[in-house]
Design a protein that fits this description.
CATH class of the largest domain: Mainly Beta
Strand content: 35-45%
Oligomer: single chain
Structural class: mainly beta
Number of strands: 10
CATH architecture of the largest domain: Beta Barrel
Strand order of the largest sheet: 3-4-5-6-7-8-9-10
Order of helices and strands: EEEEEEEEEE
Length: 182
């Protein structure tokens, strides 16, 4: 993440062919531009041959929306891969008024393609349920970041006899939520 582990300054550039994969896009840059680290930073472009494609980077930090219209925000990921955020679901079976709920999780980035695997837990503020998500952050063929997830939702039940109906499973696909000016 800029400012966390790299040294030096970064700029957003539009003349380096993001669509051809010659430089990684970054969520702090507008679409069609890419983050380039200035000379002297640990992530500068020195040593990269002209025309060489860099692996696309998928960054968890930011605002996301899923296929059901739910929104989540993931705050900065620390050096251990831990993060906090919030989740505003668009759907519920509880019948209660929906409220923004806290999430916490971690990511694991050991692959060279920087398409991190991650997991997070949402502790629902408006019901006696908890959901765990696990997934991977991808960059698709069009250069767009996508989170592919699977989840388990555990609801509170009155007795062990009802345990069979306490857990639901599903999948969600998240895409980055852009601001209006983007």
């Amino acid at each position: 993440m800029p400012g966390e582990e790299e040294e030096g300054e970064a700029v957003c550039c539009s003349d380096i062919g993001v669509s051809q994969g010659k430089a990684p896009w970054h969520p702090l840059c507008t679409p069609g531009t890419a983050m380039v680290w200035k000379k002297g930073s640990r992530r500068d472009m020195r040593g990269v041959s002209p025309g060489l494609s860099l692996p696309p980077q998928c960054t968890l930090t930011g605002r996301w929306t899923n296929d059901l219209g739910s929104n989540m925000t993931i705050m900065a990921v620390n050096e251990k891969g831990e993060f906090l955020g919030s989740y505003h679901t668009a759907v519920t079976a509880s019948g209660n008024e929906i409220k923004v709920s806290p999430l916490q999780g971690s990511q694991h980035r050991t692959n060279k393609d920087s398409q991190a695997t991650f997991g997070f837990t949402v502790n629902w503020s408006f019901s006696d349920s908890v959901t765990v998500f696990t997934g991977q952050c991808f960059v698709d063929e069009d250069g767009k970041e996508v989170l592919r997830t699977m989840w388990l939702l555990r609801s509170n039940v009155d007795s062990i006899k009802d345990d069979w109906k306490a857990t639901m499973v599903g999948t969600n696909v998240f895409t980055r939520l852009r601001t209006k000016k983007e």
